[in-house]
Design a protein that fits this description.
The protein has a domain at 13-84: Arc Repressor Mutant, subunit A (Orthogonal Bundle), CATH 1.10.10. Helices cover 46% and strands 8% of the residues. The protein contains seven helices and three strands; from the N terminus they run ααβααββααα. A three-stranded antiparallel beta sheet has the order 1-3-2. Helix 3 packs across helix 4. The radius of gyration is 28 Å and the shape is elongated. This is DNA-binding transcriptional ArsR family regulator. Residues 2-99 form the HTH arsR-type domain.
Length: 169
């Protein structure tokens, strides 16, 4: 466990912000610090998530270095760390570097030959061809239609009044 306010592990800012609840909490904290109870109330009112879920997400934000916590008696105030946007910028810069480094390969069009070589060596598989859609039969209504009831699709084998509209006398 890390000391309060410290970072114990490196979590991608994209992973942190990918969850809608954490994204919403960060938006709330952009306006200023808020207590755990106020955050939980706002998240519940807007997203329907309970206290345990909010507590988990606040912990993830703290562990990832996005937020800091100030304890005032029994109340905990959460606020965004001064460098939280630097974490996002750093992650974007890493992607920019990877993108820039891959430019020559993309220009030469080596992606497909490399994939084919990986398939030949057994490291990758060819994608499965898309399943062909069921044939559409023309003709008079009801004639020659596919019977889908054996596959769990189509009409039910229950009588019409089995949905509660009839009686079981």
């Amino acid at each position: 466990m890390s000391p309060r306010g410290g970072r114990s592990r490196r979590v991608s800012p994209f992973v942190v912000l990918s969850d809608p609840v954490r994204h919403y909490i960060v938006e709330l904290l952009c306006q200023g610090a808020a207590s755990s109870g106020d955050i939980a109330t706002m998240v519940y009112d807007n997203m329907g998530k309970g206290w345990s879920s909010v507590s988990h997400h606040l912990g993830v934000l703290k562990e990832s270095g996005f937020t800091r916590v100030l304890e005032d008696g029994p109340t905990r105030y959460h606020f965004l760390a001064d460098d939280w946007l630097d974490l996002v910028d750093q992650a974007v810069d890493e992607w920019r570097t990877t993108w820039r480094d891959g430019q020559p390969v993309r220009e030469l069009g080596w992606v497909q030959p490399v994939h084919r070589a990986r398939v030949r060596s057994g490291y990758a598989r060819e994608p499965e061809p898309p399943a062909s859609p069921a044939p559409v039969r023309r003709g008079r209504p009801g004639a020659g239609r596919l019977n889908l009831s054996g596959r769990g699709q189509g009409r039910s084998h229950w009588p019409r009044d089995a949905d509660g509209g009839g009686s079981f006398d």
